[in-house]
């Protein structure tokens, strides 16, 4: 397996827990008693979860494509 494939696969693998960690840190920062959950759910979804999961998916697809191309399939 080439070095580029390994790096992309590692980025894809670390992208999911990194996104989860960022969301948890944001939750702790934003959450205070009495605030409506909708006030931090939508920003968290649009600014953390969607970009983080999209980057993870892009890295995984790029690693898969490079791996398949190197094998000649």
Which terms would index this structure?
mainly alpha, 2 helices
Give the SSE layout.
Blueprint lengths: L2 H28 L7 H34 L2
Helix pairs in contact: 1-2
Helix content: over 70%
Query: Any idea what the radius of gyration is?
Result: 17 Å
Question: Strand portion, in percent?
Answer: under 5%
Order of helices and strands: HH
Tell me the number of helical segments per DSSP (H or I, 4 or more residues long). Answer: 2
Structural commentary:
It contains 2 helices and no strands. It is elongated, with a radius of gyration of 17 Å. Helix 1 runs antiparallel to helix 2 (38-71). It has helices at 3-30, 38-71. With 73 residues, the protein is mainly α.
Nutshell version of this structure?
Helix content is 85%, strand content 0%. The chain is mostly helical. α1 packs antiparallel against α2.
């Amino acid at each position: 397996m080439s070095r580029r494939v390994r790096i992309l696969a590692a980025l894809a693998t670390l992208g999911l827990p990194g996104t989860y960690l960022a969301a948890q840190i944001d939750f702790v920062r934003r959450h205070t008693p009495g605030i409506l959950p909708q006030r931090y759910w939508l920003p968290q979804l649009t600014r953390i979860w969607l970009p983080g999961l999209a980057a993870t998916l892009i890295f995984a697809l790029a690693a898969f494509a490079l791996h398949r191309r190197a094998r000649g399939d």
